[in-house]
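QA checklist item 7 of 12: single-chain prediction sanity check.
[x] sequence parsed
[x] length recorded as 803
[x] structure emitted
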Amino acid sequence: MARWCYRHRLVVLLLWLGALFGLGAASAGAGTNYANVFSLPDTDSATAYDLMEKAFPERAGDTDTVVWKVDEGSVRDESVRSRIEPALEEIGRMKGVGEVTDPYAAQGAAQISEDGRIAYAQVTFTEQANAVPKELIEDVVDKAQAAEADGLQVELGGQAIARTQEPPQGTAEAVGILAAAVVLFLAFGSLFAMLLPIVVAVAGVGTGMIATMLMSHVTDVPEVAPLLGSLIGLGVGIDYALFIVTRHRRGILRGMKPEEAAVTALNTSGRAVLFAGGTVCIALAGMLVMNMRFLDGVVVATSLTVVLSVLAAITLLPALLGLLGMRVLSRRQRRRLAATGPEPAEASGLAARWSSYVQRRPLPVAVMAVVVMAVLAIPVLSLRLGATDQGNHQESTTTRQAYDLLAEGFGPGFNGPLQVVVEGDAPTGLVDGIKSTEGVAQVAAVPPAGGVSVIQVVPTTSPQSEQTDRLIDRLRDDVIPQSGAEAHVGGVTAVFKDFASVTADRLPYFVATIIALGFLLLMVAFRSLVVPLTAALMNLIAAAASFGVLVAIFQWGWGTELIGVGKEGPITSFLPVIMLSLLFGLSMDYQVFLVSRMHEEWVHTKDNARAVRVGLAETSRVINSAALIMICVFSAFVLSGDMEGAMAGIGLAAAVALDAFILRTALVPAAMHMLGKANWWLPDWLEKRLPHLAVEPREEPPAEEPEPVVAGRTSVVHGFVRTADGAPVDGAAVTLLTKGGRQLDRVMSLADGSYIVSVPAPGTYLLATAAESYGSRAGQVVVTEGPLVYDVELAEGGVDAVN
């Protein structure tokens, strides 16, 4: 398929452009129909909601609030009424506004605070918040705030009003892409190579977002789903393309033609991308275990975007590689390739030195990594799930000002009233019992309608307070049962409390499911029990540490105002499920790319130390570059204007940073060095029953550069000559001798420290290595029918052990 896409690149490009513009046109005509369905089956708040919906079906539109406050006097003064009343009347006449409740009307006395300085009016639109035209909302805001004067403050709150404060759509995505472009340019040094992953990611995310908009008409898709879909889609889309482009460029630099390099890259890294994308989708599908309708739409949006991002990486990317040809390399690389010829495979520099350091000191590295992760995980012990509201907005926003004014004038619980719903008339004993309950500020029984009575309960504490949660428990466990009535506690605050409770109850099953699925996939891929066990443990450590960071920032308030996300509060109830799905999927990606290279080396050498060292040295740079890109993309979602988006962005950025730079770069290789050959142990009976799955087959050497053939040779000894810190030794003399001291072959090591000597027949030989300033080293080697891998480490200033 890669070869077909490479050769028919114009057809592939036209197909992708047609899909993008075709879906875009369909979406523009159909619009969106997002639905935030928070109902949870078999919960008290869900029963209350169903009863209220049956009794009051006319309350379909979004209700927002206009709040005003006077510095002196009363809101009843004529100077205030003469400014506010005309504004409210004009708002009521606007097309799309259903009703405006006026505190100056006969029934509006309760809408004025006891001290007379704060009042509010409720504006009910004819549509839900996401369907109200933004121009209408802006007109309402402008008309209300035009009534302001010296000593008279006017603010507005509500879901529809909050839409006027959202930054321009796509701001977060644009900033994330720009930051990723900088990282890619530094990594590749080529403008065209930099553009490839971005174009592929935009194509995948663009089609995914448009398809999600269309699917919102046939299934319940919450408003936050497209944001989360674009967040994960950009991250994996750029990363997957980065892995393939890196392998493609490496093939060209080794002397392969561009077409063969592209085919090889897709057959190696492309397979790993398919496997990694599948694991992300499986982790996301694990959310279905929670049995929450709200999360179903999130699974659809994010999984669809990941699938399309993978599809773009394995079809659109080879077509773009065909268009660019040699220009995927920088000019400097092309000139060097033409002048000096193909490069040998290099694993030198900082990555190789770090890999050697981890091999020599695995225990201190592991201990340091565990300590860092444990310290960061401490805040997770105080994790509290709940809901964010407009009280968490930035202080400068009108929604936050309105929220604070209502709390000041009518009590903190006014922003989150509870509804006690009763079938039939509300018993007097129930109303009296609620009034006398600790934590209740106001109680008002609404006249029955449709055979249902509603008792409005205003708590003394804010919706996000733990005391409000305890009040809901008292009403359900004590007050209602003692009254003998069959009643249910509902309202937004109760819904989110139930959501948090259900999440906490079902979270262990969800975590167990995705860990089990990941374990099985890695066990089949790497024929090991220890590797998937290590991966599962690392995922749990990364989750604990990233949630610790999330709690410290968003719940403890360490820097919330500084990064512009408003006031601290509880962690949104559904966020742990979504974050864990994404985190486990992304962690699996890095584990696959890291361990697949280690596994490849292990299969061919059966040397665990070499396998771990080579795997880390050759993959750490690309993994760290990919992680840096994801961190940029995720962090940019702080600019989304959405608290849940900001939480997910910061949480995932922290998780990726900790996972890539501490776990995969330090703790995983250190643990694998300490475990030794046990890493690759699998019982024989299980080995025979497991299916075989090739994640990333061994990359064959380019056909243009075959291995030299030596007459009479049956095998070779090859490897690297390095210093103690992992630096390659160039120009070292490597000599193969018989046991009697006769020289059989002699070569000089290359710039990357590699060497290869010919062996005439299987047997025992002496391999001597000498280099200026490093002394020499000699060792006995036993050669069988196949090639032997033998690395040599020279110490600077060492003695001449050969001569």
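[x] summary fact logged: Residues 492-526 form the longest helix (35 residues).
[ ] second reviewer sign-off
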